[in-house]
């Protein structure tokens, strides 16, 4: 009997999973369910959910090829198509950044190519657009899906393997009360915001996305005679002023030049981390931090001396890392950092400390699932932010837009500090922000803090939740780290094996794969973006093919 596989979601994770399945294996029956009407684009890149001015923060050279690279696909487009995308042919480059909707078009084209490849290789592939999976039930030998069809009819399906590739989890209703938005998506909703005092929680790319969406509804960005970007407000928009805010009140840095593929690390290597996992469980995070320090000293001794690295701990590294930025006016820092990043890109010059931290984050991630309860909390509270800030740099164009808005008197930055309160109940519209002894009222307020970590209780499938097979991830307690009989606590996320399958002991099929980003962040904190989607898709597709080749493994 032909193995039946369901992929829930046709964004990047679903696409890379499909890529891994459609090669020349035995014939498969694959069904792709997509809640949107046009599959293959992915929520973060869908034209109905994103403003055309929103930029992605992954360059072509970093984007894993599907059937071709992003640059190859762009170069074969007609001039008319490129004009529609807002891309100049002369500017196409492997290190260039493009609007989110352009990545959506690229992914859609790759999705169609995969469908053709799969069918030519003998697979049966069906794509069900506008079909929302409402429930999942594990059974002894298969998995039942309940699906809402476009006409509202409830449909039932049974599959041997099911992949949850639902990617980002965005709320269905964005404006939960007048002027208060819990997400910057879908972006067209933000276009309705009038010229008023707008607050945006979050200064990362998601916050910048929200800012640019609002700003382009009331003006435009144009180059002046000197080639500098300026913001020109439309008439009668004098009331527009945006305050972006975060705990530290710092802006992300501009994308920095680094060699790709990565240069090998010298001290904080995968082998060294694996050795620590095997031999240093009682103080794993501290041991990992020593490798981090050794690598940073080796790569950039001047920077290590500047921040006093030898005296730093897991608890104090972030304070030292952010110190210069926090003590410099944010737009002064942004202008200086942009000039440096642009010059380095032209010279192909690498700032070694930034590059070292970038290369280390994926290696250090290997240790996170092995941390005890106390160290896992220490990592998330103190250490993680250094890596997230380093790899979450933004396109140079994004920084230019921020500076243009600030020069136009339309933008400022607020550092909330550790004690702040956002109250959306005391006002009819928007919210009031209480911080540092001051209160600021915003007539529109947008929470743009990005994807939040979800746990077992957030699973949207009632039967699956009722079955009790999706549990919070387990972490060893600190007190049991050196004992023979380990004791475990459940700390968050979802308890998955190395193939992304829920871990349970019931006599049910174990061929459900959770590739949904929000449920993985607890133990895989750097699982973000298209490169992670590629990794998840590859792991899941290979696990399915291996299981099909050895049917005895299908039941837990």
UniProtKB/TrEMBL annotation:
Domain FAD-dependent urate hydroxylase HpyO/Asp monooxygenase CreE-like FAD/NAD(P)-binding: 6-168
Taxonomic superkingdom: Bacteria
Cited Pfam families: NAD_binding_9
PANTHER family: BLR0577 PROTEIN
Protein name, per record: FAD-dependent urate hydroxylase HpyO/Asp monooxygenase CreE-like FAD/NAD(P)-binding domain-containing protein
Organism of origin: Agrobacterium bohemicum
């Amino acid at each position: 009997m032909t193995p039946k596989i369901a992929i829930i979601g046709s964004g990047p994770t679903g696409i890379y999973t499909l890529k891994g399945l459609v090669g020349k294996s035995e014939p498969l029956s694959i069904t792709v369910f997509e809640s949107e009407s046009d599959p293959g684009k992915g929520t973060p890149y869908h034209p109905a959910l994103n403003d055309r001015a929103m930029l992605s923060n992954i360059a072509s050279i970093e984007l894993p090829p599907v059937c071709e690279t992003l640059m190859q696909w762009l170069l074969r487009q007609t001039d008319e198509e490129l004009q529609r995308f807002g891309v100049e042919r002369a500017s196409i480059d492997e290190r260039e950044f493009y609007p989110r909707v352009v990545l959506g078009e690229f992914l859609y084209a790759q999705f169609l190519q995969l469908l053709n490849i799969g069918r030519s290789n003998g697979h049966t592939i069906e794509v069900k657009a506008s079909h929302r999976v409402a429930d999942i039930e594990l059974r002894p030998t298969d998995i039942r899906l309940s699906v809402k069809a476009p006409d509202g009819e409830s449909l039932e399906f049974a599959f041997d393997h099911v992949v949850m590739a639902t990617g980002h989890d965005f709320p269905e209703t964005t404006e939960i009360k007048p002027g208060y938005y819990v997400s910057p998506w879908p972006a067209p909703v933000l276009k309705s915001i009038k010229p008023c005092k707008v607050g945006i929680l979050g200064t990362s790319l998601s916050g910048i996305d929200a800012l640019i969406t609002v700003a382009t509804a009331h003006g435009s960005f144009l180059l002046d005679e000197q080639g500098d970007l300026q913001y020109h407000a439309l008439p009668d928009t004098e009331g527009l002023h945006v305050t972006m805010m975060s705990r530290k009140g710092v802006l992300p840095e501009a994308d920095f030049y680094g060699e790709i593929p990565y240069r090998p690390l010298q001290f904080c290597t995968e082998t060294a981390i694996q050795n620590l996992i095997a031999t240093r469980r009682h103080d794993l995070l501290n041991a990992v931090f020593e490798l981090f320090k050794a690598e940073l000293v080796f790569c950039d001794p001047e920077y290590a001396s500047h921040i006093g690295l030898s005296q730093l701990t897991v608890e104090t590294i972030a304070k030292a890392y952010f110190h210069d930025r926090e003590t410099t006016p944010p737009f002064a820092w942004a202008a200086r950092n942009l000039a440096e990043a642009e010059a380095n890109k032209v010279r192909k010059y690498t700032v070694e400390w930034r590059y070292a931290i970038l290369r280390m984050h994926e290696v250090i991630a290997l240790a996170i699932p092995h941390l005890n309860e106390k160290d896992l909390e220490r990592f998330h509270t103190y250490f993680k932010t250094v890596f997230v800030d380093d790899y979450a740099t933004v396109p140079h164009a994004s920084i230019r837009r921020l500076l243009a808005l600030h020069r136009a008197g339309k933008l400022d930055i607020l550092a909330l500090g550790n004690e702040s309160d956002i109250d959306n109940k005391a006002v009819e519209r928007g919210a009031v922000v209480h911080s540092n002894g001051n209160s600021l009222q915003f007539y529109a307020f947008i929470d743009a803090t990005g994807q939040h970590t979800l746990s077992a209780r957030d699973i949207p499938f009632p039967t699956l939740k009722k079955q009790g097979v999706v549990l919070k991830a387990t972490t060893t307690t600190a007190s049991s780290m050196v004992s023979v009989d380990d004791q475990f606590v459940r700390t968050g996320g979802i308890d998955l094996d190395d193939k992304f399958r829920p871990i349970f002991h019931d006599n049910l099929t174990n061929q459900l794969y959770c590739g949904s980003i929000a449920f993985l962040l607890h133990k895989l904190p750097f699982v973000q973006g298209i490169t992670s989607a590629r990794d998840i898709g590859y792991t899941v597709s290979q696990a399915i093919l291996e299981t099909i080749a050895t049917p005895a493994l299908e039941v837990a």
